[in-house]
Amino acid sequence: AQSVAQPEDQVNVAEGNPLTVKCTYSVSGNPYLFWYVQYPNRGLQFLLKYITGDNLVKGSYGFEAEFNKSQTSFHLKKPSALVSDSALYFCAVRDGSGYSTLTFGKGTMLLVSP
Amino acid sequence: EAGVVQSPRYKIIEKKQPVAFWCNPISGHNTLYWYRQNLGQGPELLIRYENEEAVDDSQLPKDRFSAERLKGVDSTLKIQPAELGDSAVYLCASSQDPGLGQPQHFGDGTRLSIL
Question: Rounded to 5, what percent of chain A is helix, strand, coil?
Fold first, then answer.
């Protein structure tokens, strides 16, 4: 069975500082990894994905994520946080073979203070 | 392009009543998903459609939940009768080609409250 762990319920960072939201995963085959962001009373919005290729993936709004196969991690990063980045972030994984289900983590609330 | 459209946005009903949610996916997206998101949790898949065929409904509580996707476009998710534990946000998503790693695009969901 595949799974995702987001070890931090909440991450606090000051505006302008770098941010990291952690994600580790477990999947039997090659992983397809995704990050989504959810604002209050809204659906999930796609940020970036790793399918294959370069381990550093760049996505929307200045976010990036680094795939680390040996540590089975896919941490989300941003060099300089904005107050508007405050939201709920979800990591998700699926087995890259066929049409397996996408499994989501429980989410990490990011709070960026002015 | 227009995103995934869901209605209604909010629904409050008494337990044992029926309720239905509607979803219009992004044009050209053959794969459609219904998820349930409980408070403080990530979305959990209820059912996945490829065109009009339900290809994964293993997590759908079939005693009270049903879904359809007529003509392979719009979809409806129904609960009858609703129970207190069904209070959640019901999300619809669509994808163009998930087998190639295309992401899922989500609607804003229907927040269901059972009294």
Answer: 5, 55, 40
Q: How far apart are CA A101 and CA A29, in angstroms?
A: 13
Q: Enumerate residues 6+ apart whose C-beta is below 8 A from A92.
A: A4, A33, A34, A35, A36, A102, A103, A104, A105, B42
Contact B81, B112 (CB under 8 A): no
Please tell me the distance in Å from A51's CA to the nearest CA on chain B.
6
Mean pLDDT of the region B87-97:
95
Structure tokens given for B61: 């509580």
In this complex, which of B101, B108, B109 lies closest to A49 when CB atoms are compared?
B101
The token pair that represents B47 in the structure block: 């059912």
Q: What is the DSSP letter of A55?
A: S
For residue range B13-44, what is the model confidence (pLDDT) as tens digits? 999 999 999 999 999 999 999 999 999 899 99
B104 to A104: CB separation less than 8 angstroms, yes or no: no
- CA of A88 to nearest chain B CA: how many angstroms apart? 10
